[in-house]
Amino acid sequence: MGTLAAAIPVTAGPTAASGHAGDRRRRRRGSVAVRCSSAADERQALFSRIAPVYDHVHDVLSLGQHRTWKRICVSWSMAKRGDRVLDLCCGSGDLAFLLSQKVGLDGEQLQTAASRQDQRWKACYKNIKWIEGDALDLPFTDHYFDAVTVGYGLRNVVDKPKAMQEILRVLKPGSRASVLDFNKSSSFFTASLQSWAIDNVVVPLASSYGLTEEYKYLKSSISQYLTGEELEKLATEAGFSSAKHYELGGGLMGNLVATR
Ligand SMILES: C/C(=C\Cc1cc(O)c2ccccc2c1O)CCC[C@H](C)CCC[C@H](C)CCCC(C)C
Ligand SMILES: C[S@@+](CC[C@H](N)C(=O)[O-])C[C@H]1O[C@@H](n2cnc3c(N)ncnc32)[C@H](O)[C@@H]1O
C-alpha cells in the first residue's frame, strides 16, 4: 500500500454526487480521506523514514531543480481547470498540490484535505483527497480521471506492467499519464555522471541525515529501472495509443507522456 492523491474539483449538485459514485469503496459524501503513509513493507517504511527531510534534501541536492521537473510533469499531463486528476505515489504531495492549482475549485468545496502545515496553503488545496491505496489495485472505476501523474513512483512499484494497466484503466479515453523519474540513460557519460553524483553528492549528504542506506537504494533502483525506450514500450504494451519519453536535467531525469 502507499499514497495516492486525487484532486477532484466538484461543481455543486449532481456532479458532486457522481464524483463519488466512481469510488470503488463508495466513500460517504463529504467523507474525509486522510492520507496515511502505510509502512506495510520495507519500501514504504523507507519512504516514511525519508519523509521528514524529503523536501529539504531534494532542494539542496537538486538546487531546487526537482520543483521544475515536477512542474513540467504536471504541465505535460495536460490537466486543466475543472478536470478530475490523480497523483499516484503522491508522497508529500508536491505534484498533488501543483495539480490542485491546475484544476482549481469549481463550485462547492467537497473535501477537506489532510492539511500540510505550510504557509503556502491555498484555498484550492481543499479539492484534494488524500488516499491510502495501492498503485497496483486503484480504488477507482474505469475511465475516472482526466489525467494521472506519477512522480518518482513507477520505479518503486514492484509490478510496473500492472501499474501501467491500472493507470490506463482509470484514465478517460484520450487522456494522458505523465510519469517523472530518474532517467536510466543509455549514454555511458550521462549514466556515469548520475552514478558519480549519487555516490559523491547524494549519499554523503543523505548520510548527514542518517539516511545512507535509504539513498544507496536509490542507485540500485535506477539500475533496475527501464530506459526511456523501454518505458515507451511498457506503455504501448499496456494499451496506451502513444507514448514518448523526454529527458530532463541533462539526461539525469526523464518524463514519460503516454496517451490513452
Ligand atoms: C525528487 C527526486 C527524487 C525522489 C526520490 C525518489 C526515490 O525513488 C528515492 C528512493 C530512495 C531514496 C530517496 C529517493 C528519492 O529522494 C529527485 C531530486 C532529488 C535527487 C536525490 C537529486 C539528484 C541530483 C542529481 C543526481 C544531480 C543534479 C544536478 C543538477 C543540480 C541538476
Ligand atoms: C520517492 S516517493 C515520490 C513522492 C512524490 N510523488 C514526489 O514526487 O516527491 C515514492 C512514493 O511512492 C509510494 N509508493 C510506492 N509503491 C507504491 C504503491 N504500490 N502504491 C502507492 N504508492 C506507492 C511511496 O509510498 C512513496 O510515497
Shape: globular
Say what the CATH topology is.
Rossmann fold
**What is the CATH homologous superfamily assignment?**
Vaccinia Virus protein VP39
Total number of distinct structural domains:
1
Oligomer: single chain
H/E order of the elements?
Answer: EHHHHEHEEHEHHHEE
Can you identify the CATH class? Alpha Beta
- What is the strand content? 15-25%
Please give the structural blueprint.
Layout: E1 2-7, H1 14-21, H2 42-50, H3 54-61, H4 65-76, E2 85-88, H5 94-103, E3 128-133, E4 145-151, H6 160-170, E5 171-182, H7 188-207, H8 212-223, H9 228-238, E6 242-248, E7 253-259
Helix pairs in contact: 4-5, 6-9, 7-8
The protein binds ligand LLAZDA3J and S-adenosylmethionine.
The site of S-adenosylmethionine has 17 residues, from strand 1, helix 2 and helix 5.
Description:
The structure is a single chain. This protein has 9 helices and 7 strands; from the N terminus they run βααααβαββαβαααββ. By secondary structure, it is of the alpha/beta class. The chain has a single domain, classed as 3-Layer(aba) Sandwich (Rossmann fold). Strands 3-1-2-4-5-7-6 form a 7-stranded mixed β-sheet, sandwiched between helices. Helix 4 packs across helix 5 and helix 6 packs across helix 9 (228-238). The longest helix has 20 residues, at 188-207. The structure holds the ligand C/C(=C\Cc1cc(O)c2ccccc2c1O)CCC[C@H](C)CCC[C@H](C)CCCC(C)C and S-adenosylmethionine. The site of S-adenosylmethionine has 17 residues, from strand 1, helix 2 and helix 5. This is 2-phytyl-1,4-beta-naphthoquinone methyltransferase, chloroplastic. Involved in the biosynthesis of phylloquinone (vitamin K1). Methyltransferase required for the conversion of 2-phytyl-1,4-beta-naphthoquinol to phylloquinol.
